[in-house]
Design brief:
With about 300 residues, the chain is an alpha/beta fold. It folds into 2 domains: about 1-215, Obg-related GTPase Ych/YyaF, coiled-coil domain (DNA polymerase, domain 1, Orthogonal Bundle), CATH 1.10.150.300; about 235-300, Roll (Ubiquitin-like (UB roll)), CATH 3.10.20.30. It has 10 helices and 12 strands. The chain has helices at about 15-20, 45-55, 105-130, 135-150, 160-165, 205-215, 240-245, 250-255, 265-270, 270-275, and strands at about 1-5, 35-40, 55-60, 60-65, 90-95, 180-185, 200, 220-225, 230-235, 255-260, 280-285, 295-300. It has a 6-stranded mixed β-sheet, sandwiched between helices. The chain has a 6-stranded mixed β-sheet with strand order 3-9-8-12-10-11, sandwiched between helices. The longest helix is centred in the middle third of the chain and has 25 residues, at about 105-130. It is globular. It starts with a strand and ends with a strand. The structure holds guanosine-5'-triphosphate and magnesium ion (MG). Magnesium ion (MG) binds next to helix 1.
Length: about 300
Amino acid sequence: MVKVALFGYSGSGKTTLFRYLTGKMEELYDPFRPNVGVGIYKDSNIDRIAAIHKARKVVYPEFEIFDFKGFPSVQGFPSNYFKNFFDMDIIVCIVNNFDQDANPDKDATSLLMELILYDTEKIQTILKKKEEVSTGGQQQIDILKKGLEILESEHLLIEMPDVDKKLISGVQLLTTRHVFLYINGDKKSFDLTGFPYLIQKEPDGLSFYRSIMDAMGLITFYTVKGDIVQGWIIPCGYTARQASGKVHKDIEKGFIKAAVISVKDFFELGSWQAAKNTGALKFLGPNSLLSDGDIVEFYFH
Ligand SMILES: Nc1nc2c(ncn2[C@@H]2O[C@H](COP(=O)(O)OP(=O)(O)OP(=O)(O)O)[C@@H](O)[C@H]2O)c(=O)[nH]1
Ligand SMILES: [Mg+2]
């Protein structure tokens, strides 16, 4: 499951959003022990497929959401605050834009700077004691130096090439993962449009997941098994065989082929049988790629 951290100053609305996404109502008092809940991505395609199939059960894709108690903006975050962030796939910075005295530009910039400065100090410390870089040697040092330049221009390490990120994956850094800004409300106008990963609060909560998936290059495919319709999230670029492994390891092992149709075509045709009869089903071998929104039936030994 994709792990999502809610990060932000005290009172920015993290717990409110957490409750909305997960339905868990607990209040959180310890900044060093996040509250974890399951966020359900209620993809409406799944309901439509289920309605057509008269399916009794639907299973939506899930995200793991972590609510972290914040610190006041005047105080900032102590560096050990971030020790729980290294397990996370994404950090969503929640920015207060609902209060009368909200300052979204300032808060957003400060939050990003907290993360950037953490990584900057970490890399500077490592470079100072070069011998601590246990594997990779000179190559790793060169990559860390390149990383430092990126941070010094106030950018995030996610911009580094994937090969470089991989080579320094042993170093616990924050901005090597996706960082989002979530602008909570529309009280003040702001100028953050240059930042690529911006989520504007929307009433349905779906855009929250959609933005995350788009930025991370994740796609959805659907399966219909008996009377269960289920949605699955995979990285874009997964082969049919890799995708089948999400459903069951045995399917991946004994993979023969996959029959697929896009949801769009499926909705137009109105049934799986019609898709079969009209030749609209496509058959994929193990190494063909799935597309976003494919409905898939796997054949296996
Ligand atoms: N009007 C309005 N109020 C909000 C919104 N989000 C949160 N609040 C209020 O702001 C206050 C603080 O919200 P929380 O969700 O507890 O803030 P938090 O980020 O979890 O704060 P800490 O846990 O202290 O870090 C509460 O009184 C919420 O009701 C919002 O979108 N609009
Ligand atoms: Mg809270």
